[in-house]
C-alpha cells in the first residue's frame, strides 16, 4: 500500500511523523522547564534564605542566653538591652522564615519547635531571672545556670540544629531535582535535534530515491531518444508523479514518431513534386519551347513575307498570332525563372547592396539615387534580380507629368535591415497591397504597361528565401513605396 503512495504523500507522512515527535518533545520540554524553574526558584528564593535564617536563629539564641547570664551576673543595663535586641531579631527571623517555609509543614513544625522552646525559655527562665536581678541585684550565682537550665537550653539549640539540617537537606534535594530536570531538558533538546537530523536524512534519502534517481533515469531515456532512437520506449520506475511524467514524455515521443512519419511522407511527396517540377522545367524549356519557337518563327515569316498582300483583317490576325507566341515565350521564361528561385542558387556571400544599386542605375536612364545601403549575406544574383525588378517597376510606372525619380535607402530595425524603394510614379492604391505580389497579377492592361506581372512575385519569393518579408507602404501617396527586410548578419571576414 505504501509502495503506491505518491511523492507528496510520502513527504507529508514523513513531515507529519517528525512534527508529532517534535510536538511531544516540545510539550515534555515545556513541562520539564517549568519544573526546573520551580525547583530553581525554591532553592534560590525559599530554601537558601531559610537555611541562612536558621543559622542566624542559632546565633541569636546564643546571644539571648549569654546576654541574660551577663545581666544576671553584673546587672548592667547594656547587657539587658543586648538581650532584648536579640529577642527582637529572633522574632523577626521567626516571621521571615515562616513566610519562606509556607506550604512546607514539616519544616514549619521544626521552626515552631525551635522558636517555641526559646519562647518557653524566656517565659519560664529569662524573664523571671531579669525580674529577680532588678529586685534583689545581680550575683555570680544567678549568672551561672544549673544543670536543669543547661539541659533545657541544649534541647533548644538541638531543635534549631535540627531545623538547620532539615532546611539544608530540603535545599540539596531541590538542587538535585533541579539538576535532574535540567539534564532532562538538555536530553529533550538533543533528542529534538536528533529527530530533525534524522528527518532531514530520511527526506534526503527519499528525494534521492524517488526524485533524483528516477529523474536521472528519465533523462538518460530521453537522451537515448534524442540521439535518434525514436522507437525506444520510455519507462521509468518511481513514484506516481515521475511515472506519469515518463508516460507523458513517452506520449510526446510517440507523437514525434507520428509527426516524423508524416514529415518523411511529406518530404517524399515534396521530393516527387520537385522531380516533377524539374521535369516540367525541362519540358517547358525544351519540349514546349521548341514548337512554340516554330510557331513564332513561321508567324513572323508570314508577317514579313505577306504583309500588305492580304487584306487588313489577315494582317491583324497574323499580328495577334506573333504577339501571342512571343508573350507565351516570355510567360514560360518568367515561370521557369520563378520556379528556380530557392532551387538553383549559389551559396550566400557578402553582397554590397550599394554596389548592386549603382550597377542597376548605370544600366538605366538615370533618375535612380541611393544612400547608406548596407552589406548583407545572401545570393548576389537573386538580390540583384530583386532590386532590378523593384527599380524597373518604379521606372516603368512613371508619372506622365514629371520625370521619374527612384530612391533606394536603408535603416537598421530590430536586428534587420529595412530597405526601401520609393518612386514618384503613378502609385498603387492600398486595397491592392496584397494582390501586387501574386504571380501574373496585373493592375493595368498589357497594351498600356507591358510585362507578364511576375516581377513583384519574384521579388517576394527572393525576399522570403533570404528570411525577410516585403510589403507596400500604404501611407505613401505621391508615388509608390516598397519596403522589404533582410537579416542583419555580420559580414564574413
Task: Provide the fold topology.
Elements: H1 7-74, H2 77-100, H3 105-136, H4 140-143, H5 147-226, H6 240-306, H7 312-340, E1 349-352, H8 353-362, E2 368-371, E3 375-378, H9 380-396, E4 406-413, E5 416-423, H10 455-465, E6 470-472, E7 481-487
Parallel strand pairs: 2-4
Antiparallel strand pairs: 1-3, 4-5, 5-7, 6-7
Helix pairs in contact: 1-2, 1-3, 1-5, 2-3, 3-5, 5-6, 6-7, 8-9, 9-10
Short description:
Helices cover 69% and strands 8% of the residues.
Descriptive notes:
This protein has 493 residues and is of the alpha+beta class. It has 2 domains: 2-211; 345-487, Histidine kinase-like ATPase, C-terminal domain (Heat Shock Protein 90, 2-Layer Sandwich), CATH 3.30.565. The protein is 69% helix and 8% strand. It contains 10 helices and 7 strands. It has helices at 7-74, 77-100, 105-136, 140-143, 147-226, 240-306, 312-340, 353-362, 380-396, 455-465; strands at residues 349-352, 368-371, 375-378, 406-413, 416-423, 470-472, 481-487. Strands 2-4-5-7-6 form a 5-stranded mixed sheet. Strands 1-3 form a two-stranded antiparallel ribbon. A hairpin with an 8-residue loop joins strand 6 and strand 7. Helix 2 packs antiparallel against helix 3, helix 3 (105-136) runs antiparallel to helix 5 and helix 5 (147-226) packs parallel to helix 6 (240-306). The longest helix has 80 residues, at 147-226. It is rod-shaped. 23% of the residues are buried. The model has no long low-confidence stretch (mean pLDDT 81).
